[in-house]
Specification:
Layout (H helix, E strand, L loop, with lengths): L1 E3 L5 H19 L5 H4 L2 H10 L1 E7 L2 E11 L2 E9 L8 H12 L5 E7 L4 H7 L3 E9 L2 E9 L4
Parallel strand pairs: 4-5
Antiparallel strand pairs: 1-2, 2-3, 3-4, 5-7, 6-7
Helix pairs in contact: 1-3
Length: 151
């Protein structure tokens, strides 16, 4: 079940986020990537100010995603899936739910590392690369956009 996160979920979401991003940190050889050093207070503020959705199974949060409207663009961030639940379609379901929860958005933007396994998922869901941003020797950010179809 996918539903809106509440402030009380912040700690569990942070724990999930850290578990989910360990693999990314290992890919880039950097244990200090933003999702791993974010504080519980920062997650609480995100839940209060953004659209944060959670996937729940048996009372356990197994996935989450954030969306923050900036003008008419929804900035997507922190798509996280529990390591033992990856590959089950939760990422697709969370992003589809976010697209529905922010109907006023004309586009959805996100970025990820160039080695991320999530790139396939984003392409499958209609996200297209807009540009790349070299951060340092081991990391290039890939920026993607999914325009909303106008009927």
């Amino acid at each position: 079940m996918i539903e809106r996160a509440v402030v009380a979920d912040a700690g569990e979401i942070l724990t999930l986020q850290r578990a989910a991003y360990v693999t990314e940190a290992q890919l880039y050889g950097d244990p200090f990537i933003a999702p791993l050093v974010e504080s519980a207070e920062q997650v609480r503020k995100a839940v209060e100010s953004a659209t944060v959705l959670k996937a729940v199974d048996g009372g356990r949060i197994v996935g989450a995603v954030r969306g923050q409207l900036s003008g008419t663009t929804c900035l997507v961030g922190r798509l996280v899936i529990a390591p033992d639940r990856q590959g089950e379609g939760l990422g697709t379901a969370l992003l589809a739910a976010l697209h529905e929860q922010v109907p006023q958005a004309t586009a959805f933007d996100l970025f990820t590392g160039h080695l991320s396994m999530s790139l396939r998922l984003y392409h499958k869901l209609g996200y297209r690369e807009t540009h790349r941003e070299r951060m340092d020797d081991h990391l290039t950010l890939v920026h993607l956009r999914r325009p909303v179809s106008v009927p």
